Amino acid sequence: MNYKHAIIINLLNTPSVGRNRVRVLLSSIGSMENPFEIDSKILCKIDGIDIKTATAIKKYRHLTYGEKQVKRLEEKNIKLVSYWDDNYPVLLKKIYDPPVLLYTIGKALNKKEDMVSIVGTRTMTQYGRTMTKMIVKKLVEAGISTTSGLARGIDTMTHRETVNLGGRTIAVLGSGIDVIYPSENKQLYQDILENGTIISEFPLGEKPDRKNFPQRNRIISGLSHGTIVVEAGDRSGSILTAFNAIDQNRDVFAVPGRVTDAMSVGSNRLIRNGAFPVHKGDEILDIINDRLFRPIKGIQKTLPLNLSEDEQSIFKHLGHDPIQIDDLRKKVGLDIAQLLQILLNLEMKNAVTQLSGKQFVIS
Q1: Which of these, 78, 95, 166, 203, has the minimum number of CB atoms within 10 Å of its CB?
Q2: What is the domain range of residue 262?
Q3: How far apart are CA 276 and CA 256, in angstroms?
Q4: Which of 27-41, 42-56, 133-147 has the lowest mean pLDDT?
Q5: 261 and 327, same domain (yes or no)
């Protein structure tokens, strides 16, 4: 039995302690030490630990609860990964409030794993389905793992397509790892385990309560070099995952949609506020490549081979950040009619994509 994990479980179960204090406490005394055996006066010298908290810790010094939980996990073949373990993901450790303990089942977590999260609406359209499959295909081909939340819609499509293509995907639950939600994803849950991992921060038996999902979302984005929002309505929870990614200093991508589509309201708003507009995996790889643990060789911005001289002169001024046509006109020195004609040609050659508000990005 791993008594270190039993100690952590006991601490997390101690009233008024919480994961932040647990992390500070064990980092201060050393993760191999038993805080329940340390004198209260010494505990009170640690940031965030007052006499009330020290007293509460002492009341939970018997490890019966933690030991019982560890034994249950061993019987179910569920592994625990603590913040201090060697295989705790590096990217997740860098966020503001990383989990102290992760419950995992399936393949082991990797300390350094190149991963991208894909999230979106539970009520995806055919457009969302198609775009998710296209993006996942490119990521899997590049050896990039995917992560999402096992929810209906875009999450499910992300996991399913990754599994179908033989890639590795990580599902982060907003419930205990033994509580599959939604229930129709029971088979997908099992299929993920073949090459991927299911993880949760919540103890066994925890129901998928509404308050759990914001905590889950920070893990999804925290595991990843970047987060892609495929489709998101006006109040979609996937927008909160994107905000987490921003707070964690990670890239945010969004798939543009028609302004009249309800499931693209949130995605388009993210683009207006600075998210990278994307519609294929190459664009994502190009942006995150220099931060990958195993960079992909040969990725660079290349010109399509069939562009005319005029088209190349315009294309060189375009990038992944949207540029408004008036700003582009000032850069290239052409009149608006001539510029629009060249941009139309570029769109027809699938080299450029026009976004709302006469904004343009490379395709």
Answers
A1: 166
A2: 115-291
A3: 9
A4: 27-41
A5: no
Q: Which element (helix H / strand E) includes 103? A: strand 101-106
Determine the angle formed by the axes of helices 336-348 and 325-332, rounding to 10 degrees.
110
Maximum pairwise Cα distance, the chain: 79
* Under 8 Å between Cβ of 287 and 226: yes
Q: Is 235 domain-assigned?
A: yes
DSSP 3-state assignment of 356? coil
Q: Per residue in 192-244, pLDDT tens? A: 999 999 999 999 999 999 999 999 999 999 999 999 999 998 888 899 999 99
Are 282 and 323 in the same domain? Answer: no
Can you say whether the dihedral through the CA atoms of 32, 60, 214, 71 is positive or negative? positive
Mark whether 169 and 20 lie in a shared domain: no
The reply to whether 220 and 166 lie within a common domain is yes
Q: What is the CATH number of the domain that holds 120?
A: 3.40.50.450
> What whole-number distance in Å separates Cα of residue 319 and Cα of residue 246?
21
Q: In whole angstroms, give the CA distance from residue 6 to residue 16.
A: 18
Do both 238 and 356 map to the same domain?
A: no
Q: Tell me if 83 sits within 8 A of 222, measured CB to CB.
A: no
Question: Where residue 60 sits, what CATH number does that domain have?
Answer: 1.10.150.20
Which tokens go with 99?
Answer: 């989990």
**Pair type for strands 359-362 and 352-355:** antiparallel
State pLDDT tens for residues 111-148: 999 999 999 999 999 999 999 999 999 999 999 999 99
Is 81 strand, coil or helix? strand
> What is the β-pairing status of strands 359-362 and 323-324?
antiparallel
Contact (CB, 8 A) for 228 and 157: no
Report the predicted TM-score, pTM, of the whole model to 2 decimal places: 0.79
**Residue 191 CB coordination number (10 Å):** 17
> Same structural domain for residues 57 and 170?
no
Amino acid at 161: E
State how far the Cα of 284 lies from the Cα of 116, in Å rounded to an integer: 9
